Amino acid sequence: MTSHPSTQTMKPATAAKKLGVYLQATPAEFQEGVVSRDELRALQTDPPEWLLELRRNGPHPRPVVAARLGISIAGLARGGVTEPLTTEQIEELRQELPDWLRQERATQADVRKEAARIKERNEARAADRSQRS
């Protein structure tokens, strides 16, 4: 008795997250169904027009908005941005550069510097340990 491997599927929310799009902006048939790994791969390699349009103009989910603004998701919340934004709205924020966004970008730059410093320190320690061995 041989069993055929079952097709792995995921919820639409998971697929939307992997595609980097806001679930509520996707077509109804996408939101209501399940997505197989093969379907996800097909969407990633040959995206349909609706997916291209969402990626181009939004609305975008928070991780995408934060990345485009160069800040963290927590920084978005501290800045009062709780809703998905369109590409146009993101560009407006970048042009206006409100105080909260300027501060969050500075915070993010500090976090990156600290992460780089820690990485260098750890690499130096590892090199030092390997030389002693």
Question: What is this structure's SSE topology?
Answer:
Blueprint: E1 9-10, H1 12-19, H2 28-32, E2 35-36, H3 37-45, H4 49-57, H5 62-69, H6 73-78, H7 87-96, H8 99-132
Antiparallel strand pairs: 1-2
Commentary on this structure:
With 133 residues, the chain is mainly alpha-helical. The chain is built from 8 helices and 2 strands. The protein has helices at 12-19, 28-32, 37-45, 49-57, 62-69, 73-78, 87-96, 99-132; strands at residues 9-10, 35-36. Strands 1-2 form a two-stranded antiparallel sheet. The protein is flat, with a radius of gyration of 21 Å. The relative contact order is 0.10.
Cα-based radius of gyration, to the nearest Å = 21 Å
The number of E-state strands comes to 2
Strand content: under 5%
Low-confidence stretches: none
User: What percent of the residues sit in helical stretches (DSSP H or I)?
Assistant: 55-70%
Q: Which structural class fits the helix and strand makeup? A: mainly alpha
Biggest pleated sheet: 2 strands, antiparallel
Could you write a compact summary of the structure shown?
The protein has helices at residues 12-19, 28-32, 37-45, 49-57, 62-69, 73-78, 87-96, 99-132, and strands at 9-10, 35-36. The protein is mainly alpha-helical and 133 residues long.
Task: Looking at this protein, list some descriptive labels.
mainly alpha, 133 residues, two-stranded antiparallel sheet
